Structures are given as C-alpha cells and as structure tokens.
Amino acid sequence: MQKRRTWSKHCRRALVGLAVLAWLLIAGEAEADPVKLVQPFQMRFTRWDTQVIAFLSGNPTYAAVEVFYLDRRGQPPLIRATLTRLDGFQIDQINDPAIVADLQTTGRIAVYREIDFQQALLPGDRVRVVAQFVSHLGEDIVLDVTTISPPSPAQAGLINPGNHSSTTSLPVLWPDASTLGNDESTVLIDCVPQPLVPGPVPGSVLAIYSDGFNLGVIRRDTRYLELIEGPEQLHVGASWTFADPIGGIRGYEVISLHGGRVIIRSTTGQEEIIVARRRTGNPDLLEMESVRVTGLPATSNIHPPPPAGLTLDLTPPGHFSLSLDEHGDLVTGTAAVSYDRQRVSWTLRPTQPSWAIPRVVNATGWFDRRGDVLYETTIGEPQPADPCPWVD
C-alpha cells in the first residue's frame, strides 16, 4: 500500500514536471526571435514629367535654381523647387506636406511651399516654363526659362551632378529628352535679375530643360524602427510591421519564395522590392541581394516588373551596381559587407563614373534579438561608429 502511495506521488511530480516543461516550451515558442529584415539603404525614385535648372553667377548664396513637376492623376500636381547653395548643399521647397515630412526624417532640409508652375508650348515646339515660389528664407524667387529648340533624346543621358549634395546623396539622374535655355532665360530673387552662367560641370550651359526626368538616389539617413510584428517562419504572406518615433508605420510582406530566395515588398510608403536569402549559419537573418524602388505608392496595386525603377544590385560578390530602368550599370563599384551578432554593415565604393567616386556609401543596421533596428547611412564620410544601442 505504501509503495502505491509513493508511486502515485512520483507520478504526480512527473505530471507537474511535464506540465512545466510544456509551458516552458510554449513560452519559448511565443518568445522565439523573429526573422530579421535589415535593409539600411534609404532609396527613392521619381519619374518627373519636367525638370528645369538655371545656374547663377555672382549670387552670394545660391549656385542654381531647379524646379521639378509631376502630374498626379486624381491629385494636385507635385512640384519641387530645389535651391543649391554655393557649398553644394541643397534645400527643397515642396507643395506636398507628406513628402516634406518624409524628407525631413532623412535629415534633408525641406519646407512646405505653394509653388506656381506655368508651362507653354511656343512656335517651333519650343517650351517656356515660369515657376514662382517663396524660399525657405522668405525670398520671392522666379525661374523663367525658354528653350532654343524642342527637347531631344540626343541631348539626354546620365547627368553629372557636380558637387551638388555631395555628402548627402548618391544620385542617378537620367532625362529622356533635353534641350537648352536661350539668352532670355532668367532668375529673379526678390525682383532682382540674377546673371546666369554655365554650370560647374564641363559642357554645362545657362539653363537646361528636360522632359521625362528620372531621378534615383541613395540618401544619407538615420532612423530607428521598432518592430511591432514580425514572422518567426518565412512563408508567402509573412509580414513585418515597424513603427518610427514620429508615429509612422512601415510594412513589408513576403510575396514569393523560390528555394532559398525570398522576395519581399513594402506595403507602406513608396514601393520597394527586396530580394534576399537566409544567411548561412544564421537563418534568422536575411541577406540582401538587391533592392528596387519603382516610384509608385506601395498601395497603388500596380507592380511594374523589373527593371522598372532604381535598382541596387548586390548579387556579384564584392561588387554593386545602380541602374535606372533598362539603363544598366550606370554607377558601379566595389561592395563589402560584414555581419556580427547585432550588426550588418555595407560599404559601397563607386569606381565609375568618376564623379561618383567620392560618394562612398556606408550603410549600417544595428538590431536586437527582438528585431528593432537602428539605421545609419553616410555618403562620402567614414563608417559610422557602433553606438551600442541595445544591451539584451
């Protein structure tokens, strides 16, 4: 009888032990680390309908005035006026407060302004553009450019940006068709005419007008994203939701799995398509092969196939390339990536064209086991120091 009671007591202990073990296993599963998505490159792409730029001579503050125009179906047109200072730093005046707010998160100076934009077709298919806006300093600025001829693809191609934003961006600029401004073109600042001069890039002229201006860029950036929800296993439909400190939401979703390759698409903001693989030895971390931004809203339900947009290709070991649409390898160079327990760091060193060489891109993502990420990207500057943002 005693043995039976002792056996029963051991049985009860065993059952309790099994229950505790089961609870620990369930809790362990509930607290399993999510698959980590680390994409540190702040990339943007816009297809502008029109771009006009004039180069100033003798102005104490500005080297150039530039205006971009985009007709948006069902919305007011998007207009951006960019002032380039003598030191190459750029300031944006934009008529869309949401885009201003997005740019401000990257550290770029951008202000909301109403911009008046008028475009007229003249005899001989020449074009006149008049844009008027108030600068970030309160100056009344008028850009008035008349072309000497119709825009032509023969005068288009990859643009050398000179030193414009040399420490804040790596730009890839490609107009579909361009032409030159005539001698009547002018810029007024507070009603005072500004002498125009050929730009700093060899072959520049007083003013340039372009149709179909494609602008892709990797920007300097610092941002912290808190993971709200992330997948423990990869499958089609698995998703990540991040929150930024100002209340914005960034979302991504797995749209395809092919062997070890994972294709991920953003579900908020500008459409971004990431091709990645599970990292050997650390399957919870995705290793990027390419990133493409199409210039369309992620919510548009229109997904142009490759190569539409700006593509950063990291597939060839030790190399990278930037392409715009079918114009491949416009900027190329070497790529180095390093991984450790809490960090992924990329260094892109352009080798061609020559103007891109100083614009070295250092992009780092620090992450904790929960999937929160701190991103820092510098252009033309040393690799950022490890800020040790988390201690788990």
Provide a descriptive summary of the structure in words.
The chain is mainly β and 392 residues long. It folds into two domains: 172 residues, no CATH class; 160 residues, no CATH class. Helices cover 9% and strands 51% of the residues. The chain is elongated and about 65 Å long.
Main attributes?
elongated, 392 residues, mainly beta, disordered N terminus, twelve-stranded antiparallel β-barrel, 24 strands, 2 helices, disordered C terminus
Which residues sit in consecutive blocks of at least 5 with pLDDT less than 50? 1-30, 388-392
Strand content: over 45%
User: If strands are numbered along the chain, what order do they take across the biggest sheet?
Assistant: 13-14-15-16-17-18-19-20-21-22-23-24
How many distinct helices?
Answer: 2
Round the Cα radius of gyration to an integer and report it: 26 Å
Number of domains: 2
Q: Classify the secondary structure makeup into a structural class.
A: mainly beta
The H/E string reads: HEEEEHEEEEEEEEEEEEEEEEEEEE
Give the distance, in angstroms, between the N- and C-terminal Cα atoms.
53 Å
Question: What is the share of helical residues?
Answer: under 10%
- Please report the total strand number as a whole number: 24
Q: Major β-sheet, in short?
A: 12 strands, antiparallel, barrel
What's the overall average pLDDT, rounded?
87
Based on CA inertia axes, which overall geometry fits?
Answer: elongated
